[in-house]
Amino acid sequence: MTLADAQQHRLLELLREAGEEPVAFADLHASGISFPAAVVSELELNGYLIERVSDHGRLVGVRLVDSEPRDTPAARRRRGWPHR
């Protein structure tokens, strides 16, 4: 497992634990995620639905919409292309 994979797993774990509550980027960073915004983007590219939560136009955090990834082109590439 690479550092990026470990950070993705940790971020998913934190978002799943939070349930419906948004988790602030500062809290994610304090929990060991070096670049939380980048890791959120990586997870989105891999099919996870992550919502950015704002309060009066100010970003307060992110929350996981669905705990399982959608099937996206980026997620398929990660699993490898089908062989013919």
Task: Supply database-style keywords.
alpha+beta, Arc Repressor Mutant, subunit A, 84 residues, two-stranded antiparallel ribbon, 46% helix
User: Which regions have little confidence, pLDDT < 50, spanning 5+ residues?
Assistant: none
Q: Which whole number gives the mean pLDDT? A: 86
The oligomeric state of the chains shown is single chain
Q: Just name the CATH architecture.
A: Orthogonal Bundle
| Estimated structural class | alpha+beta
CATH topology: Arc Repressor Mutant, subunit A
Q: Calculate the terminal CA-CA distance, rounded to whole Å.
A: 28 Å
* CA gyration radius, whole angstroms: 14 Å
Query: What global shape is seen?
Result: globular
Q: How would you spell out the order of helices and strands? A: HHHEEH
**Number of E-state strands:** 2
CATH class equals Mainly Alpha
- Count of helices? 4
Report helical residue fraction: 40-55%
Question: What is the makeup of the main sheet?
Answer: 2 strands, antiparallel
How much of the sequence is in beta strands?
15-25%
The figure for the number of domains is 1
CATH superfamily: Winged helix-like DNA-binding domain superfamily/Winged helix DNA-binding domain
For the biggest β-sheet, the strand order reads 1-2
